[in-house]
Design brief:
homotetramer; disordered N terminus; 76% helix
């Protein structure tokens, strides 16, 4: 673990992948900002909650995209190199995402 | 439905409630921005995914807070006034949140 | 709390409601038994996992049905009687179901 | 796809693994039967819903156990054999489980 609370392993992403993932996060950031504006405008509770479920769905899509890239690259490569520790790490993060 | 995609019913919140809910959303916005920075810094996939699950948990806390206020005020009041349509609206939003 | 781990409050359901809810549970029991048979027949992991997600969906439908009845009867009645403790109980169970 | 709705790929499990997984499913079956008895005994809605969330948690534990075995055996082996189609199948089932 580094001082930033995550280990030092890195993962270089392609320009294209980086752009696609960043764009998704920008949209999610905008959706969260939108929730704050809804609060300011006294929007009705159930309308805000419906929008929260849309943000959750967008976050899940981002997770799936990142997870899919992770499986296709890091996981496949490390398994081919005989480093099966990658599976423990994967299960540990899936446990958090499947809750 | 208004032009903004949600109906015109309003809900005036107290200063204190508004502040508490807005603060939660500010923190979530910061967490999403943090995810974007993690991507830029080539942080490893599972570390980003772990952080995504933290954002999901924070969004769920926000939902529960808002839902709790909604039950205690709008739902209770409208049921007392004999307006049971509030229950259909509630079930419809819970269905989205329980998915 | 009773010796059975739940409190003594009761809820009389109509014949029709009882039948509808029991039928759903019978089907879910059959699905779980089906999972066990899949294991015995050496069915491939992802096919079993797909079926598990179907059982989860069926359980969620049962929850929503029961929750909807609960809101329309117990919750509405107790709120009309001024017993707002029903809302705390509801939030506590929703917290478990929204995880 | 076979006439039973799942493809013919098989997965031989060890006696020990089979027993562990079957035992979990037996307990879940018992829990679902218990839900039906709670209905018959007019148990209060929120007590039943709390028990439903326990069944959901047990099903998730079963999924994780099976998924973990799947990753350690089928997925690792097929990746080593160069059969990356296993990753598409995995993502497709994770998508269902992460909903």
């Amino acid at each position: 673990m580094s001082e930033h609370g995550y280990n030092q392993r890195k993962r270089k992403r392609s320009e294209e992948e980086l752009k696609k993932l960043s764009n998704r996060l920008c949209r999610i950031e905008g959706q969260v900002r939108g929730l704050r504006e809804m609060l300011q405008k006294d929007v009705y509770c159930t309308d805000i909650l419906t929008q929260v479920s849309a943000v959750n769905a967008a976050l899940n899509s981002f997770s799936r995209e990142l997870l899919s890239e992770h499986l296709r690259t890091c996981v496949a490569e490390r398994i081919r190199q005989g480093d099966d520790e990658v599976i423990d790490e994967l299960m540990s993060v899936l446990q958090k995402l499947m809750k």
